[in-house]
Amino acid sequence: MDSFSSPSMPSSGSPGNTEALMDQIKAQLAQAYAQEFLETVGNKCFAKCVTKPGSSLSGSETSCISRCVDRYIEATGIVSRALFSSSR
């Protein structure tokens, strides 16, 4: 066996347990991705749109942030679709 091969997983777990574990891992990854996404979007859009931080956002800052988030979500969707369609 070369250094890139991995030993086969032990068959002690039932297929149901393996599927449940995979579902749990997928959910945790999705949550981590969502948190990172929101933090990134928030930081980038805040830096772009809020020129003078104060106790509240102005109307133009609010609409700028809204447009920024919408564009970021749209761009992420386009990139995701392109990546997933090319991997099939």
Automatic annotation (TrEMBL):
GO terms for biological process: protein insertion into mitochondrial inner membrane; protein transport. GO terms for cellular component: mitochondrial intermembrane space chaperone complex. The keyword Disulfide bond applies. Keywords: Chaperone, Disulfide bond, Metal-binding, Mitochondrion, Protein transport, Translocation, Transport, Zinc. GO terms for molecular function: metal ion binding. Pfam families: zf-Tim10_DDP. Residues 1-15 have a biased composition (Low complexity). It comes from the Eukaryota. Residues 24-83 form the Tim10-like domain. InterPro entries: Tim10-like. Signal peptide: none annotated. It is found in: Mitochondrion intermembrane space. The keyword ATP-binding does not apply. Residues 1-20 are annotated as: Disordered. Heterohexamer; composed of 3 copies of TIM8 and 3 copies of TIM13, named soluble 70 kDa complex. Associates with the TIM22 complex, whose core is composed of TIM22. This is Tim10-like domain-containing protein. It comes from Zizania palustris (Northern wild rice).
